[in-house]
Amino acid sequence: MRVQTVSRARRPAWHKIPGKCGTGLPLRSLGSSNASYLPGSVSGDRHHLRVALPKTPGVREDLFLEWAGRFRTTDVKVGTLAPPPYYQMPMLVRSFCDDPAERLRHLPEDDLTHIAALLAWVDWRFQWIHPFKDFNGRIGRMALAALLYKLALPPVETVPTDPEGRRAYLETLRAGDAGALLPLQ
Predict the structure, then answer these.
(1) Which of 97, 152, 164, 175 could form a disulfide with 15 if both were Cys (CB 3.0 to 4.6 A apart)?
(2) DSSP run (H or E) holding 52
(3) Domains of the chain
(4) 97: closest CA among 138, 126, 137?
(5) Selection from 92, 85, 104, 99 nearest residue 150 by Cα
């Protein structure tokens, strides 16, 4: 994901919170109910981001070899959502990567409402595109973690783990699918 970082002059004050930002930012476990930290890190410069995760014992490297990291090759249905056709994935993902960079260029200085709107849009848009065969939620949350890092913001819980919070989150994503993006903020 290519995004432009907020310049030092435009960074919100909380970028100075010790242990929250910078090289080696811990990634939240994107699939566990206990939200533990992964022993990985996010690093990079203002144009490139690297996510490094160690090899996990007991997980075969070739488990998802056929489709891992490739756009889906069939149309899918996710609950009541019918994501865009598979053949649009390269164009939609390219647009998805370029759009936040443009939005960041016009982001009002230290405007938390606009920052929240951008983060909500990124979360919703990636889930709406649904570019991969599986793990779209986890990858979308990694995109959010990357954007938070680029904005020098502290990590946040992106998906509630309690049943009521999760239900509300999924309802809000469905509202976004229907064009009501405001509740995502």
Answers:
(1) 152
(2) strand 49-52
(3) 8-184 (1.10.3290)
(4) 126
(5) 104
| Amino acid letter for position 157 | E
Query: Which one, of 8, 9, 10, 11, lies nearest residue 154 by Cα?
Result: 11
Query: Of 95, 118, 104, 80, nearest to 5 (Cα)?
Result: 104
Question: Which token pair is 47?
Answer: 């144009």
37-88 confidence digits (pLDDT tens)? 333 444 554 445 455 545 555 555 555 556 667 888 999 998 888 999 999 9
Instruction: Tell me the C-alpha distance between 70 and 144, whole Å.
Output: 20
| DSSP output for 131-176 | -BSS-HHHHHHHHHHHHHHHTTPPP---S--SHHHHHHHHHHHHHH
Task: Of 153, 149, 156, 158, give the one whose Cα is nearest residue 24.
Answer: 149
Could you give the 3-state DSSP secondary structure of residue 113? helix
Q: Are 143 and 127 in contact (CB under 8 A)?
A: no
Sites in the chain below the pLDDT cut of 70: 1-68, 181-185
Other CB atoms within 10 A of residue 60 CB: 8
* pLDDT at site 154: 83
In terms of Cα–Cα distance, which of 178, 126, 143 is closest to 30? 143
